[in-house]
């Protein structure tokens, strides 16, 4: 098996556009007994629309306008508009869809994502290209760890798998020459720190 041929697959599996959906599915997987089915379905639909369908539609629009050129690799200039749109959509999600009182842990997951989006947008303005893929997979790993601690669930294997995925995504980005090691490390920090800080707050 040639690992180098497989590595790019992880850039698609853990593309930032999928991370919110992964986190939401995991959240409801372990908390489904606390909510009505209607609450789960409506919230999932809202998350899919605001974090997947709308951003995907905007990507095709931006691509047709020449604003972006690639789904997995974007230049510094191409990042500004998609990241700004992501930040706005995350704000709408936590303001009008995911209630802090009802979906507390999920609310803080998306709030952390909003902080990460603002930080990475600031880095783009400062001409620094932090890895969006590393931000996403690191934030997801922190969320999985936080929920496992909060609900005292033995997800050691899952957490270990997430950490391995961080390494695989990082290797993928390096293999594809999309980022430097510093940009990957910055992405991990931008993804982890808001989640860890907010986890301490909600705990």
UniProtKB/TrEMBL annotation:
Q: Which UniProt keywords apply?
A: Membrane, Transmembrane, Transmembrane helix
Q: Where are the transmembrane segments?
A: 12-34, 40-62, 83-100, 106-125, 157-175, 182-202
For this entry, the protein name equals PAP2 superfamily protein
